[in-house]
Write a structure and sequence with these properties.
Number of domains: 1
Radius of gyration: 18 Å
Number of strands: 13
Bound molecules: zinc ion
Structural class: alpha+beta
Strand order of the largest sheet: 8-9-10-11-12-13
CATH topology: Metallo-beta-lactamase, Chain A
Strand content: 15-25%
Shape: globular
CATH superfamily: Ribonuclease Z/Hydroxyacylglutathione hydrolase-like
Order of helices and strands: EHEEHHEHEHEHHHEEEEEEHHHEHH
Helix content: 25-40%
CATH class: Alpha Beta
Distance between the termini: 33 Å
Number of helices: 13
Largest sheet: 6 strands, mixed
Amino acid sequence: MRVEILSCGHCIQVEAFSKGNGSPRKVSFPSSVVLIDHPRHGVILFDSGYTDAFIEETRHFPERLYALTTPVTIANDTSAKSQLLRRGIAPEDVRHVVISHFHADHIAGLRDFPLAKFPFSDDAYLPFKKWSRLRQVSQGYLRGLLPDDFGDRSVTYDFSLPLRSINLDYFEQAHFLLGEESLALIPLSGHATGHIGLLVRESGNSAFFVGDACWHRDNFIRNSPPMRLAVSWLGDYQQYHSTLTSLKYLRYAHPEIQIIPCHCSDSHQSFIWQDTSTPTPNVIPTSPIQYQVEGRQPSL
Ligand SMILES: [Zn+2]
């Protein structure tokens, strides 16, 4: 299996916004996409990063408010699609794009992958459907970013059901993406409703991609959480801190697991993955039956 972190655009924010020990200066927050080239299931992405679609969607109000409060920089060649093409991976080769949650910086690239299925937690999307357009924007969601056939391509996971044991301190249960124990979808509540992370493990390699469960590794390494207002505005402060505490203990109990927040460039730069891929075809089409292992087709 091959795993890479792609930096797909970035926004500018005050550093102290994301961590208590941050300075008042403005810094760059990359939006990352995790590329997994799986020996049996082909190309899988975790989140989809910024693309030009974000610029298009924020040209007019109320969506313009998002771009004004969170200035975004996107170069032509930094989209996940462009970076995959440079690696010889066509957009049609991407079979799954796991959605950690529905904030715009995580879903802006979904339209670039016409054949991909979209696994996500079944309570991550439904709240947005009930809200006004203005409230959606205020909570970081831009509905025009979803592909027209999003409902048909969605595969939802119910995390209120008994899950599979992963025997991992502080995160003991998960759904297995495509039935693969090496790809564990783990609930990480607090930042946004239905927020999930992806734990990828195989012999000699392990990484826990935690999305926005924290914004910088200092949040759990140095006990330096983000600004309370920033957390409370988007999610549940108590749940967020409970998740952050679990990440802190996980790091002590399992130092071999790399904990990688979506927007932490320090974590991205130190990320190590030993490529264990064998010279087999990159993409093996996945039959619909495999989706039924744990995920299900929702009625959206
Ligand atoms: Zn978010």
